[in-house]
Input
Amino acid sequence: MAGPDPSSLTVATRLVAGGRPERTPGAPVSPPLELTSTYVADGPVGYARTGNATWSAFEETLGSLEGGRGLAFASGMGAIAACLDLTPAGGVVVAPHHAYNGTGGLLDALERDGHLQVRRVDISRTDDVLAALDGADVLWVESPTNPMLEVADLLTLLGAARERRVLSFCDNTFATPLLQQPLALGADAVVHSATKWLSGHSDLLLGAVVTSDDALLDRLVEQRSLRGAIPGPVETWLALRGMRTLHLRMERACASAAELAERLRSHPAVRLVRYPGMGAVVSIELAGGRAAAEQVERTVQVWTPATSVGGVESLIERRRRHPLEPTTVPEELVRLSVGIEDVEDLWRDLDGALSSVRA
Output
C-alpha cells in the first residue's frame, strides 16, 4: 500500500508523513533504526560509509521540504566543509562579515593556508555583494546572519550568482525550510546544522545539504564518503523524529520571539533590538555594555546560558565571549534563542535580569 504523494501535501504534513516505510500489513509505522557497518554483497549498498536506510528516511524528508535531494553529514561543520571544499584551488569565496563563527573560522583557516581567497561583505548591502561577485567562484550566504540577524536579498543575489556561474550555497539553519526555501530562489545548495531547529532537542550533532543539481549532489556524496563525514544512524533517526514536530515548535517559538522583541524595544536596559521579523532568534544590545550583558547571563533562571540555538529550551549568550566572533559584533550583544516555554515565564525571567542592571 503506497503512502501519500508528498507533492500534494503541505509542509506540515510532509514533516509527519515523510520517510515512512511502505504500508505493508504488520510493518512498523516509523522507520526502523538500521545499525550495521556491513551489507551482504550485490545489494544497493555495499558498505555503511556509502549508505544507510536511516539516512535515506531523513534525507528524503528534508529534501521534500527544501525542494531537492538531501544529504546528511556528521555535523553542520561537516556539511559546511564539504561545500567549501568544492572551491577550486586559489578560488574566491564571497562570504558575510557576520555568520556562524565555525564557518568564519574555517574560511580564515583555508585562506591562511592558501587554499582560497575570501571577500567579506555585509550581506544586507546588495550592491556591495553584487560587486564582490565579479571574478568569484563561490557565494556563501547566511540569512538571517548569526548573530547580527542581517537579511539578504536572496532572490537578487542568488540570481546574480547563477548568471555569473558562481556556485551559491545558502545556510538556511536560522530560517528553516518553513520560513524560506533558497533553492526556489536560485541557490545551488542549501546547508543546515540539523543539530538546531530541525532536530530541535539539543541532543545530537548532525548536518545536511540539499540540492536539486544531480551533478553537485554526486560531488558532495564523494566528499562525504572519501572524507568520512558520515552521520551516525542513531543521530539521524533522532533528527527525523525531532523534525516531525518542527512546524509546531517553530510556530510557538517564532510567536514568542516576536512578542519578546516588541517588549524589549521599550525596555530601559536595552539600547537596540535586532529582530528581522522572522525566526526564533532575537539579539539585543544592552545600554550597560559588556558588564550588563554578563550580569544578565548570570541572573536568568528560566533562560539557560549556553552556546547554541534551536532547541525546545530558551538559551542566552553574550556572543563576544568567543574568540572567533568578529570584532564588529558589539561586546554588549546578547543572543536569545527562543524556545517553546510559556512566553510570560520567559519575559518575567528576562525582565527581572534586565531590571537588575538598569542604571
